[in-house]
Design goal:
By secondary structure, this protein is mainly α. It has a domain of 163 residues. Helix 5 packs antiparallel against helix 6, helix 6 packs across helix 9 and helix 8 runs antiparallel to helix 10. The longest helix has 29 residues. The chain starts with a helix and ends with a helix.
């Protein structure tokens, strides 16, 4: 229940931040401070949600379907940490977390000078809200009796988890997916600059604003692809 509430909270604050920034774009400057406040609340909400999921994994709360499906008590700590994102629901949580962290740096970047903060952040917060919607629909916080309704008795607590897929029990699982998702998340920044400059009819500015982010994304994704190649063929 706590996890679901946290997801709904950051989904709501992301939408509120988006609306506030868009109203600022329309000329209502008093909403700028609200946009920033709601974004910071969104980031705190996302990080709290991620921390709660990690807590469930490390304390072996097998009544949660995701924890039961991906982890077990015999996993070493690095592999146990990697179960956070080894399943579909957890990978969406990792993506959202990385995006929220990128957003903190992006907000600091666009708030200095005329870098289209209302336009860029209105698009960026909409992206986080969309990721939040995915987590509402594909929640990592379902109980086993919710996911397997009719098959598992309400309140049932499995004694052991199913464990991490043996094919994923490798050193590279601990660094390869986070590296790729960091690259994916950072690409949101140049996209937001592109849309933001279109909103302001400043078509030539997006390359100047986006270049540091594009270089970072290319570097991180290149590193992640090389890791994946070594993992696949090593």
């Amino acid at each position: 229940m706590v996890g679901k509430i946290l997801v709904y909270i950051f989904f709501s604050t992301a939408l509120l931040s988006c609306v506030s920034y868009y109203l600022t774009h329309l000329g209502k400057e008093k909403f700028l401070s609200f946009g920033r406040l709601f974004y910071h609340l969104t980031a705190v909400g996302v990080l709290s949600t991620a921390a709660y999921l990690m807590y469930l994994i490390f304390t072996h709360q097998f009544q949660f379907a995701y924890v039961w499906e991906q982890s077990s008590t015999d996993l070493q700590i690095p592999l146990l940490m990697s179960t956070f994102y080894s399943g579909q629901e957890g990978s969406f949580m990792l993506w959202t977390t990385m995006t929220a962290i990128i957003g903190i740096f992006l907000l600091n970047y666009v708030s200095k000078g005329d870098r289209l903060e209302p336009q860029v952040m209105s698009v960026f917060t909409l992206i986080i809200a969309f990721l939040g919607l995915i987590l509402i629909l594909k929640s990592p916080f379902l109980y086993v009796w919710e996911k397997f309704a009719g098959e598992v008795e309400v309140g049932f607590m499995p004694a052991e988890g199913r464990g991490l897929n043996p094919l994923l029990q490798n050193f590279w699982i601990t660094i390869h997916p986070p590296t790729l998702f960091l690259g994916f998340s950072s690409l949101a920044a140049p996209f937001c600059f592109a849309i933001g400059t279109l909103m302001k009819n400043r078509y030539n500015d997006w390359i100047k604003f986006s270049m540091p982010w594009l270089l970072f994304s290319g570097m991180i994704l290149g590193l992640g692809i090389m890791m994946g190649g070594y993992w696949a063929y090593g």
